[in-house]
Amino acid sequence: MRNSLPMQATSRRRFLGTSLALGAGSMLAGLPFQAQAQVDNLKLFVPANPGGGWDQTARSMEQAMKAAGLIKGAQVTNVGGAGGAVGLPQFVNQWKGQGNALMVAGMVMVGALITNKSPVSMTQTTPIARLTGEFEVVVVPASSPLKSMQDLAAAFKADPTKVSWAGGSAGGTDHILAGMIAKAVGGDARKVAYVAYAGGGPAQAALLGAQVTCGVSGYGEFAEQIKAGKLRALGISADKRQAGIDIPTIKEQGIDVELFNWRGVFAPPGVKDADRAAMIDLVSKMRASKPWQDQLVARDWTDIFLAGDDYRKYIDSEMTRIGDILKELGLG
User: Fold this and answer.
1) Per DSSP, which regions of the chain are E strands?
2) Which of 67, 106, 143, 260 is least surrounded by CB atoms within 10 angstroms?
């Protein structure tokens, strides 16, 4: 279950890929992507097991950077467990000062560190850039009497115990969105009857069997069943309608909530200023390259690029925001 902004007509997942990427490309004029590689060997640390979203991001970065001539090679190290809470201490302590290293992580880690009461914080890393995001969607079985987010909100306010929410791990993105919705409609987030599933398959089975009231996940998780008419999408957590997706936003239905599950990269603590600047430059060039833009389209990812000091400020604000939500859910 799934760690987001609108797309151009060529692909709904190229939100900034055509506009902002072109801007980034103009700033990099005179620096052709097939020029001499900037890094001989990039080390990518993934605090999750192979195959997941963070791992896919790391391996897509490797492919794109190689194809763009930005690196000669890359090594991916996976250390999974507890939404990144197991891997982060290793990255902070054992990778300290390594100027050619990047960790791939995202929103899920923010919540995991808080719920696991980790002694290590993301603030100990060196934020480099936010890369991609995915909007969440709220769905119900096709047989459900609920037709809109207002219907769901009314049912929750009438009796929270009769509204069950299926999603990923407790304290994850799906759970956070459910809590945000509960709070926005004037309810008590602690009363959200959240049912955590280990993956999309079991959650979909529960929804299709009408064992739960509604489900929350990244759009891609439910897209096939929505298109097949087996699930009804009530709302998407985007800031505005998405091209190619006929689903109203949660916000336009009178519930002031928007959320995307973002992924980004971080350098280790203790890196030199020159190495930090080089990593920001490397990732910025990757983002503006055609190989990376092709990856966004192929994987249906939304470009929400944000780098350097702005990204650091964003991380600080996310930690505060998510921490507050998890406290309201009784998990902080």
Assistant:
1) 39-46, 71-78, 101-106, 126-141, 164-167, 193-196, 214-218, 231-236, 260-267, 302-307
2) 143
CA 206 centroid distance within chain: 24
At 302, which CATH number? Answer: 3.40.190.150
Digit-coded pLDDT (tens) for 112-169: 999 889 999 999 999 999 999 989 999 999 999 999 999 999 999 999 999 999 998 8
Of 238, 186, 241, 250, nearest in space to 214 by CA: 250
State whether 156 and 119 are in the same domain. Answer: no
Instruction: Output Rg (C-alpha) for the chain, integer angstroms.
Output: 20
Look up residue 327 and give its two tokens: 């406290």
What would the pLDDT profile of 268-300 be if each residue is shown by its tens digit? 999 999 999 999 999 999 999 999 999 999 887
Whose tokens are 């949660």? That residue is 250
Residue 160 burial (CB count, 10 A) = 17
Q: What angle do CA 213, 157, 140 make, to 5 degrees?
A: 20
Taking phi over 0 as left and psi of -120 to 50 as alpha, with beta for the rest, 232 belongs to beta
* CATH number, domain containing residue 201: 3.40.190.10
